[in-house]
């Protein structure tokens, strides 16, 4: 009996007597509003769940979850990477060098953050290889001058696969009065 009580109370107010139709109308309107509100809430939560999944897989697949940095450079990064991989919650590790730079092609200039990677290690920590439209990370060979550009950067520069680009990186000259960009 107690499990049917809310249903019976709701039914009483929806089926009002003939002389009191206003209460029936108010009750029906309230129930429809409540149903609509719950449906919208479920829809919004579903959209946010999907957005959260996309955020985690696409954006965080390109950005490292943690970085270990050194101002003077890491000489024995392989040893450090092996030590980190021994930890239970570490999935992958890969070295990279990060530098601000400017790409130039035929009078068009575009600033960018340039990452120097080791292609053999990068597949362990990044999804960049899965989203490359042409070529593969294995095409990057030490000693050769190859670069992977994002689609927006390539579009802004007006270049395609095989075109030559010039990369300019800042270099500071240290003099007695201070450091000056070169």
Q: How many DSSP H or I helices?
A: 5
Question: What does the main sheet amount to?
Answer: 3 strands, antiparallel
Q: Give the strand order of the largest sheet, numbering strands 1, 2, ... along the chain.
A: 2-1-3
Structure class = alpha+beta
Number of domains: 2
* Mean of residue pLDDT values: 81
Rg on CA atoms, Å? 30 Å
Order of helices and strands: HHHEEHHEEE
Q: Can you tag this structure with a few keywords?
A:
single chain; 182 residues; alpha+beta; 2 domains; three-stranded antiparallel beta sheet; two-stranded antiparallel sheet; 5 helices; transmembrane; membrane; MacB-like periplasmic core domain-containing protein
What do you see in this structure?
It comes from Vreelandella olivaria. Residues 27-167 form the MacB-like periplasmic core domain. InterPro entries: Lipoprotein-release_system (IPR051447), MacB_PCD (IPR025857). With 182 residues, this protein is an alpha+beta fold. It folds into 2 domains: 5-59, no CATH class; 96-181, no CATH class. The protein is 38% helix and 17% strand. The chain has a 3-stranded antiparallel sheet with strand order 2-1-3. The protein has a two-stranded antiparallel sheet with strand order 4-5. A hairpin with a 2-residue loop joins strand 4 and strand 5. The longest helix has 39 residues, at 21-59. The mean pLDDT is 81.
Give the secondary structure arrangement, pairings included:
Blueprint: H1 5-14, H2 21-59, H3 77-85, E1 96-105, E2 108-117, H4 119-122, H5 151-157, E3 166-168, E4 172-175, E5 178-181
Antiparallel strand pairs: 1-2, 1-3, 4-5
């Amino acid at each position: 009996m107690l499990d049917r009580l809310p249903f019976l109370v709701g039914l009483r107010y929806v089926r009002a007597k003939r002389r009191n139709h206003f209460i029936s109308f108010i009750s029906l309107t309230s129930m429809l509003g409540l149903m609509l509100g719950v449906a919208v809430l479920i829809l919004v939560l579903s959209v946010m769940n999907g957005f959260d999944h996309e955020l985690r897989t696409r954006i965080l697949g390109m950005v490292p979850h943690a970085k270990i940095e050194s101002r003077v450079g890491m000489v024995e990064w392989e040893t450090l990477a092996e030590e980190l991989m021994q930890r239970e919650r570490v999935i992958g590790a890969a070295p990279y060098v990060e530098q601000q730079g400017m790409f130039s092609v035929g009078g068009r200039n575009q600033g960018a953050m340039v990452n120097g990677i080791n292609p053999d290690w990068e597949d362990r920590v990044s999804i960049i290889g899965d989203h490359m439209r042409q070529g593969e990370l294995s095409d990057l060979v030490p000693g050769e001058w190859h670069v992977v550009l994002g689609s927006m950067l390539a579009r802004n520069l007006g270049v395609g696969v095989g075109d030559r680009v010039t990369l300019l990186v800042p270099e500071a000259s240290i003099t007695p009065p201070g450091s000056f960009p070169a």
